[in-house]
Amino acid sequence: MCTITKEDVFAAVSTVIDPEVGFNLVEMGLIYDAIIEESCNIKVIMTLSTRGCPLHQMITQWVREAVEKLEGVDVVEVEVVWEPAWNISMADDNVKDALNG
Amino acid sequence: MFSVSKDYAPPFAMVSPFFWIGSLFYLLGTVFLLFLNPDAGHFDMAIVGWAHWFLLGFMMMIIFGAMAQLVPVVVEVGHFSVDLYYVIWPLLLSGTIVMSMGFWFMPLILPYGGLIVLIAMIIFLFDTLMTLRKVTNITLTVKTVVASNLFLLTGIVIGFVMSLAVGSGLEVDIGRWLGLHAVMVLGGYVTLTIMGLSLILLPMFGLSHGFDETPINRAFKFMVTAVILHFVSTIIAWDFGQFAAIFMMFISVSLYLYQVFIIYKTRARKENDVWAKSMFFGYGSLLVALILGVVYTLFGGENILMSASWFLIMGFFSFLINGHLYKIIPFLVWFERYSPLVGKEKVPMLNEMLPHRMAHYEFIFSATGVAVAGIGILIGSGDLFKGGTIFVITGAGFMLGSVKWMLRYGK
Q: CB-based burial of residue B105 (10 Å sphere; 0-12 exposed, 13-18 middle, 19+ buried)?
């Protein structure tokens, strides 16, 4: 029985910061879901703020590494999806306020 | 699924010379403005020499350096052979110097400079077109990149033939072909490329989403059709065709400006940093150049043509390019020096890798200078032009300082 929760995964991913905007991926609203299997295999479903993001591969690698630090985790997979497309309404209020200048 | 891996991103040592050289040519190019007389007209050899110094040594140099990074982002496949960029900048550098010296002092060496530049561009086009052969998702943007690169090839071949005419006495009607050379290179390549890249970069940096792309798609089609029409019209000496082509380009630029406005209205990131300010001034200059261009086409006037060219080159092209350097260089430096440290130690944000004060001064001096000198050209005031040029030179000095600061960050 895996004791890792979705909240644990989101907390781990919140240590990953987008260097361009300076916010973490969770508060940006880029992390859509985390599927945790009984065996503690974890699949993170996320998106990026733009399809042509030059950091695409690195960001997914950082997410994987952040989740792998959780105790008891087995295999971590990160899937980037484009539907639904990200928009600013998905971000936390503090991000919206900061971006509004 | 697409991603830019380490293999796709160009080595920092490969692309940094493009930015160093480009910024140095920009500064020297602005200094050379002091020795030009804008009333001399667009056939004056001093002005033509300056135009090649600036357009090849600054604009093309930085566009090519940026393309080493951006081609994979735009067309979503890796370079055919990114190592070719190691030979592009030395060839473009030496060819540009020889060409400019040819225009200014020794017409005999002009064809040699033209040949070196031609080789540099053919290598660039070879890599780009071979890269495009790997693309499976043929979007309108990809088609436009293909068209713009073919226009560049045609434009530089025409330019090389004209260099033979000036330097070796080859019998060519330069008056007839100069317009086509400018249309192919500036309209067919530079403008189309900037349109395509900005469709990617403006939403990326402004966090714009869900906007209508109809205007830019129409702008692409109008520009491609206009450049082809201008080419055919020049070949068959059809004046009305050339006139119609120029107006189609005006329509294309108008649609493009409307698209930029749509992206601006839908942006989530409203911070007015030096990049955003540069974009505001650049697009404002494009609007001024567009209005002056329409007035010149309808009523004539060398001063109007020269001031339209000034706002297009020094206002639009320069601010778009310099503004994006504040985004591209910190990213490349960060990617090279800090991305391996993520998760291991604290790394800087990209915003911290900007020389904010120096960049602010660069913007203020450059924008003031471009506006003042442009008005000077328009009303025929040499003093105003020279005064504005001093501001532009000061801005260019701050730009070179900013580039140096960014490239050396964390070293």
A: exposed
Is B97 part of a structural domain of the chain? yes
Is a pLDDT exceeding 50 seen at residue A36? yes
Cβ-defined contact of B268 to A87 (cutoff 8 Å): yes
Helix (H) or strand (E) holding B139: none
Q: How confident is the model at residue A34 (pLDDT cuts 50, 70, 90)?
A: very high
pTM (two decimals): 0.91
Helix ranges restricted to H, B105-206: 110-132, 140-168, 174-182, 192-206
Question: By residue range, what is the domain housing residue B301?
Answer: 293-411
> In this structure, how many other beta carbons lie within 10 angstroms of the beta carbon of residue B256?
26
Q: Is residue B176 one of the residues assigned to a domain?
A: no
Last residue of a domain, one of B86, B117, B137: B137
| Cα(B244)–Cα(B172) distance, integer angstroms | 24
Q: Are B76 and B112 in contact (CB under 8 A)?
A: no
User: Closest chain B residue to A84 measured between Cα atoms?
Assistant: B210
Count other C-beta atoms under 10 Å from residue B77's C-beta.
Answer: 18
- Separation in Å, CA of A24 to nearest CA in chain B: 12
The band of A101, judged by pLDDT with boundaries at 50, 70 and 90, is low
- Measured over the CA atoms of residue B204, residue B208, residue B210 and residue B216, the dihedral's sign is negative
Cα–Cα distances (Å) from B276 to A98, B38, B280, B329, in that order, read 16, 30, 6, 16
- Using DSSP's 3-state secondary structure scheme, residue A80 falls into strand
CA separation for the pair B399, B388 (Å, rounded):
16
Q: Which of B311, B55, B19 is closest to B185 using CA atoms?
A: B55
Is B165 inside any structural domain? no
Q: Which residues in chain B come in under a pLDDT of 50? A: 1-7
* Closest in A52, A58, A80 to B339, CB measured: A58
Does residue B84 belong to any structural domain of this protein?
yes
Copy the structure tokens of residue B13: 């040592």
Nearest alpha-carbon partner for B390 in B376, B404, B405, B408: B376
Residue that is last in its domain, among B93, B116, B137: B137
Q: For residue B330, what is the nearest residue in chain A, using CA coordinates?
A: A20
Chain A residues within 8 A of B205 when measuring between CB atoms? 20
Query: Considering CB atoms only, which of B204, B270, B339 is closest to A101?
Result: B270
Number of H helices, E strands in chain A: 3, 3
Q: Using the 8-state DSSP alphabet, how is residue B267 labeled?
A: B
Q: For residues B43 and B30, what is the distance between their CA atoms, to the nearest angstrom?
A: 19
- What radius of gyration do chain B's Cα atoms show? 20
For B227-241, write each residue's pLDDT tens digit.
Answer: 999 999 999 999 999
- Could you tell me the two tokens for B25? 């040519």
Domain count, chain B: 2
In order of their start, the domains of chain A are: 6-99 (3.30.300.130)
